[in-house]
Amino acid sequence: MAKAKMMNESEFAKLIKEFNAVGELIRARQEEKQSVINAFEVERGRYKAGKISRKTLDSSIKKTNNEFIRLDKEIRKGIARVNFLGTGAKQLASKQAPIVFRASSAGVTILTKKKKSVKKKAVRKKIVKRKVVKKKK
Amino acid sequence: MKIKKEEVKTKKLNESDLASRIKELHSLGELLRVRQEEKQSILDEYNSESKRFFLGKLSEKTVKSSIKKTKEEIKRLDLELKDIINQSSKKTDEINKLILSQKPEKFKINFSGAYHSSKKR
Q1: How confident is the model at residue A117 (pLDDT cuts 50, 70, 90)?
Q2: Burial class (CB within 10 angstroms; exposed 0-12, middle 13-18, buried 19+) of B6
Q3: In this complex, which of B36, B110, B111 lies closest to A6 when CB atoms are compared?
Q4: Which three-class secondary structure state does DSSP give residue A109?
Q5: Over the stretch A44-89, which tens digit does the pLDDT of each residue have?
Q6: From CA A74, how far away is CA A68, in angstroms rounded?
Q7: Which of A59, A117, A123, B55 has the largest count of CB atoms under 10 Å?
C-alpha cells in the first residue's frame, strides 16, 4: 500500500518548545546583565558619596566583570543552541519532501528516479611500437 | 557645564517578535502534517476505488476519471508541500538571524563606570 511521508509531530513540537525556551533564557540573561550593570552604577554612586571605600568598589568591579563573562558565555551558548535547533528543524522539514506517486489502473505506484547508468570509459589500448630489427647484411 | 553620561544598556531580544516567528513555524509544521494526511487519504481513496474496479463494481471510464482526478490532487498537494517546506526553511533562517543579532556586547567596568569595550571612548 502506498504511504505518504508523515512528519514526526512530537519531534517538531519538541523543537518548537526548545526554541521558545532558549529564546526566553537568552532574554533572561540579557536582563540579568542589565541588572548587574545597574547594581554597579548604584555602588559607584555610593562610592562617590563616600559611603563605601575604594577597596569595596574594587572588589565589586572584579565581581561585576566576572559576572559579565559568565552571562556572555551563557548567552553565546543559547545562541549556539538555537543555531543547532535551526539546523535540526530545517533537516526535519527537508526530509518531508514529497514522494512522487503515480496513479494508474493497476493501482498507485511510487515513482523513483532511475539511477543514471555509469558508462565505463573504454580503455585505450596501448600502442606498442615494435622495434624494427635491422637485418644484418 | 554638566555632561550627561550615556546610560549603558544591554541588547534586548524582542520576545514578542521571536514568539510570533516561532508560532508561524509551528503553524507551518502543522500545515505540513495536514497536507501529508490529506495526500494519504487521497491515496487510500484511490486504492479502494481501484479495488472496486477489479471486483467489477466500477467501469473503466470511472476509474480513468478517478486516475485523472487523483493525479491532479497529488500534484497540487506536492506543490503545496514543497512550498511549505521552503517557507519553514525561511522562517527558521529568520529565527536564527534574530537570535544571532543578540550576540553579547562586551562591557567593561572600572571606577568611571560601565562602558562598551568595543567602542572607542
Answers
A1: low
A2: exposed
A3: B36
A4: strand
A5: 999 999 999 999 999 999 999 999 999 999 999 999 999 999 999 9
A6: 10
A7: A59
* Three state DSSP letters for A32-66: HHHHHHHHHHHHHHHHHCCCCCHHHHHHHHHHHHH
C-alpha cell at A61: 568591579
Shortest CA distance from A57: residue in chain B:
B111
Q: Is the ipTM of this complex over 0.90?
A: no
State the pairing for strand pair B107-110/B113-116. Answer: antiparallel
Q: In chain B, what residues touch A100 (CB-CB under 8 Å)? A: 78
With residue B21 as reference, give the H or E element that holds it.
Answer: helix B15-54
Which chain A residue is nearest to residue B70, measuring alpha carbons?
A103
Sign, Cα dihedral of B94, B95, B98, B101: negative
pLDDT band at A136 (very low <50, low <70, confident <90, very high): low
Question: What are the structural domain ranges in chain A?
Answer: 9-110
Which residues of chain B fall short of a pLDDT of 70?
1-6, 118-121
Q: Which amino acid is at A75?
A: I
Q: Which residues contact B104 (CB under 8 A, 6 or more apart)?
A: A30, A33, A71, A72, A75, A76, B10, B11
Asked whether B119 and A124 are in contact (CB, 8 A), the reply is no
In whole angstroms, what is the distance from residue B67 CA to residue B12 CA?
56
Give yes or no for B116 touching A (CB within 8 A).
Answer: no
